[in-house]
């Protein structure tokens, strides 16, 4: 079965061959006694871009905050005097600095040994979040439904289960083909578990 979750859920995304792109050689999933393992880590390019962009924004806002000598009007609704505007700019400095740290952490994860999504016979084990070091194990028998969700240009595979929801971002998997093979492995596992209960 060829990953029907992904093909149903990602609307408007044509195969690579139809988009005029060279076929991507998928990163092999390592099959072990516990099931199939798929590398899970941020893309180095996107993480470097985010870290660099937000660092520049933070530096720029530091200069604006230090040299500010006027008030600020936002959307013709919110008015700040000079001191209020300066405080607002320093708050933006803090926001951009945190975002830069988040991007830098993504770079560190991209260069580190990859975390993994493990699709086994009884269930799925995956990182709790894109930047989390914790893992979550979901048994097939506890899954209530699954869905492919698109938020802007990003895609997420949501696994809803009796204790909550596990989300696997497509961007954290090596490439499109590997992502589809992971979905196929999960689908096969769910079907096998359903048949075993009959």
Explain this structure to me?
Helices cover 41% and strands 27% of the residues. The protein is of the alpha+beta class and 198 residues long. It folds into two domains: 4-13 and 27-41 and 114-197, PH-domain like, CATH 2.30.29; 45-111. Helix 2 runs antiparallel to helix 3. Mean pLDDT is 82; it is low at 8-33.
SSE arrangement:
Layout (H helix, E strand, L loop, with lengths): L3 H6 L20 E3 L2 E6 L3 H24 L4 E3 L3 E3 L1 H30 L3 E5 L3 E5 L7 E5 L3 E9 L2 E8 L2 E6 L6 H22 L1
Antiparallel strand pairs: 1-2, 2-5, 3-4, 5-6, 6-7, 8-9, 9-10
CATH topology of the largest domain: PH-domain like
Major sheet attributes: 5 strands, antiparallel
Please report the total strand number as a whole number. 10
CATH architecture tag of the largest domain: Roll
Shape: elongated
What strand order characterises the main sheet? 1-2-5-6-7
Distance between the termini: 21 Å
Number of helices: 4
Overall radius of gyration: 22 Å
Oligomer: single chain
Helix content: 40-55%
How many domains, as an integer? 2
Structural class estimated from helices and strands: alpha+beta
Unreliable segments of 5+ consecutive residues: 8-33
Q: How large is the share of residues in beta strands?
A: 25-35%
By CATH reckoning, the class of the largest domain would read Mainly Beta
Keywords: Membrane, Transmembrane, Transmembrane helix
Transmembrane segments: 46-66, 86-105
Protein name: PH domain-containing protein
